[in-house]
Write a structure and sequence with these properties.
By secondary structure, this protein is of the alpha+beta class. It is 48% helix and 14% strand.
């Protein structure tokens, strides 16, 4: 009987771990992508952008990569690099959402949404 409880516990923990990995959205990027949306999982402004992307099916119209930076140190390093290219050198001034496109930075939910609005029809 104890074997069954132990087996059940292992299965439950395994399932929990798989669900956690699937939902963590912390895939590494290379930084060479042409359009990158940097976001933080807990960022309320990023959630507004995410809702806009979903409700307007932007993923079907604009080819871009999403990079979570709060829980992924590699993505965070690339985020800092892209900010510096755009002239933001003080890490305290860097924030999400940030869209890197064609060597330019679009910072803040309004500018990111405006970028997607103007590029969704192309």
């Amino acid at each position: 009987m104890k074997k069954y409880y132990a087996l059940a516990a292992v299965v439950i923990l395994g399932l929990f771990f798989l669900v956690y990995l699937k939902n963590s959205q912390t895939a590494d990027i290379t930084g060479k992508e042409s359009i990158i949306l940097f976001y933080g999982k807990e960022c309320p402004h990023c959630q507004v952008v995410e809702e806009y992307i979903k409700s307007n099916k932007i993923g079907e119209k604009v080819n871009f990569t999403q990079a979570e930076i709060f829980h992924n140190s590699n993505n965070q390093k690339i985020f800092v690099e892209k900010n510096k290219v755009c002239g933001v050198n003080n890490e305290k001034e860097m924030g999400v959402p940030l869209l890197w496109a064609d060597g330019k930075c679009f910072s803040g939910q309004d500018k990111v949404i405006e970028f997607f609005k103007s590029n969704a029809g192309k």
